[in-house]
Design a protein that fits this description.
The chain is α+β, with helices and mostly antiparallel strands and 228 residues long. Helices cover 52% and strands 9% of the residues.
Length: 228
């Protein structure tokens, strides 16, 4: 077992944006993947779909979109949600306008989230934190198995234990994990959860907090008691 690589993830001038971005992606992979544990490899996390990782990463990058999508899904199937927990999560995203100020921009001059994701996964693979293994499952959709290796799992645990600024991402990832079966039904090319108030083009250029507050009030019949 080699030494666990380190990242400077502290909220300080010496921590680069890219380092914090990579640390955030490690958390995404950790919570997106399925846990496995073996005598030879130790604890790892794995998943068979880059599309799943892309979706999960999008919801973490875009808390405003996440809030609007959850509210839309709740309106149609409230019985599938724990309302107190959902409202607490929405209140967290509305507090201090986090749904807007915590939107994650693209890193390294990437032109799209997929390009950004590909570059970041290459960075992690080169450092043996993530591996891309061939899959022999008989499925046309399953060609690769991405694994967060043992050292990657240890680094995630180190980040969660020593970097309080990443508590936000942990809570967001846990929320997305809970409701991913609902969220994955939305086509991110169409973003139907934005209607009728917004279009994808509008959502890319305007603050989303006012629209979240409006939909929150319409859905629950109360005004969210944050920033008032």
């Amino acid at each position: 077992m080699g030494r666990t690589p380190t990242l400077n993830t502290q909220d300080s001038p010496s921590a680069t944006y890219f380092e914090r971005h990579i640390a955030r992606l490690l958390l995404v992979i950790y919570f997106c993947g399925q846990p496995t544990n073996s005598l030879l490899e130790g604890e790892t996390r794995q998943f068979d779909s880059l599309a799943r990782l892309h979706q999960f990463d999008f919801w973490v990058r875009e808390p405003g979109h996440l809030a609007l999508a959850l509210l839309k899904s709740f309106a149609s199937t409230p019985e599938r949600f724990e309302q107190p927990d959902l409202r607490a999560a929405l209140d967290r995203m509305l507090a201090d306008d986090h749904a807007d100020i915590r939107r994650v921009s693209l890193s390294n001059g990437s032109q799209s989230i997929l390009e950004d994701l590909d570059f970041s996964l290459s960075f992690l693979t080169a450092r043996a934190l993530v591996s891309d293994r061939p899959s022999f499952a008989r499925s046309r959709q399953t060609n690769h198995q991405l694994v967060l290796e043992t050292n990657g799992v240890k680094l995630v645990q180190q980040i969660l234990d020593t970097c309080p600024t990443f508590a936000w991402y942990r809570l967001q990832c846990e929320l997305i994990s809970t409701y991913f079966s609902r969220l994955e039904r939305y086509d991110l090319a169409m973003m139907t959860y934005l209607s009728p108030e917004l279009t994808p083009a509008m959502a890319a250029t305007v603050p989303l907090v006012p629209f979240i507050r409006q939909r929150y009030e319409q859905t629950f019949g109360v005004i969210p008691h944050v920033n008032v």
